[in-house]
Amino acid sequence: MSPTTSDTSAEPLIPSGGSxxxxxxxxxEAARTADADWRGGRTFSLxxxxxxxxxxxxxxxxxxxxxxxxxxxxxxxxxxxxFESEVVDATAELLHxxxxxxxxxxGGTESILMAVKTSRDIARAGGRPATNLLVPRSAHPAFAKxxxxxxxxxxxxxxxxxxxxxxxxxxxxxxxxxxxxxxxAPCYPYGLIDDITSISELAASRDxxxxxxxxxxxxxxxxxxRLGRPQPVFDFRLPGVTSMSADIHKYxxxxxxxxxxxxxxxxxxxxxxxxxxxxxxxxxxxxxxxGARPAAPxxxxxxxxxxxxxxxxxxxxxxxxxxxxxxxxxxxxxxGLAVTGEPDFCSFEFTADPGSEVAVDVGAVGDFMxxxxxxxxxxxxxxxxxxxxxxxxxxxxxxxxxRAAVAAGGTGRGRxxxxxxxx
Length: 423
Ligand SMILES: Cc1ncc(COP(=O)(O)O)c(C=O)c1O
Known about the structure:
By secondary structure, this protein is of the alpha/beta class.
């Protein structure tokens, strides 16, 4: 077969003859040499690194055992049905939700897509046009994507001075087409928890649905609360909250492919399911967006909860909280740099301090750190860090390089602010 890439000198993508596994694995290793070194704690997003080898090896074994199974038909694999419902219920327990009122999905984006779809359908079943949802400007782009897929309008609401959504502005933007108000707990860019009490009260007072995106915080903030950290209530304890998203593949510490979407009632989750009875293949029923569903993330999510238990989650929560305090105060102590806002969570921005006499080009700081092997995301206002338990081990080295970066000065090479990407 001839090459199908634009690079005509490339090997054919489907070789005429196969290669033995060792050769394929060697090629894979060679291809990975430029990949981010997340194990050393130098990557700040994408991976939630615990540094716990026993946990890692267990997850590798679980994924090996469930590599070939398919969760499309839960009756063929009752183990997966059990794991899925127990993971959903464990998350509901953590967030004061209702047992059996949610599903697992492949990730935060799918959970958000499902929550927006279900909310739209519930509102329409109640006779409303349900044409728009109101989300904070800092909310994850998954809401924009959901709105695009579902052909509803996403209206981004400005943030107040504290960088949390301006709830008065949200109230002013409600019209007869509005069906859903959204808050983040926390948002990714600044690690701030929106005023979920006010958003959910506003939703309830206007007979609207209210989704709390706790994809990031859902598996961390409840442990911080148990450790005695002061933080606002953001979950189903607030009566106006009607749905939530919380990812196990983030601070639940399993591998990618596991998030939960939860509803206040079992009736609501039923609106998420899709059934089709007009096919010669038989009745088709599907809880979320995917058809065939990988089994390994379901088993992995269950296994990590079993393995860590409350004690393990509290240990990692304490490590991450300590790391968060150390990075935040260490950065604020560097003349010329400042953390943006007063983050509630270990996902936050830092940038040039506008009140400092030391003028810093934060792009140059990022480039310097890149050259020292750190992978720090750029966002529109500055540099972004998201901390995992392992980052507690590299804080001294990080802050020392950061001080050196500020001292080096210079001008940035202009690397763009990006999140995710299209290859
Ligand atoms: C607050 C928040 N919501 C949603 C998402 C989307 O999750 P996923 O990347 O698993 O689709 C993210 C991802 O980082 C996030 O930070």
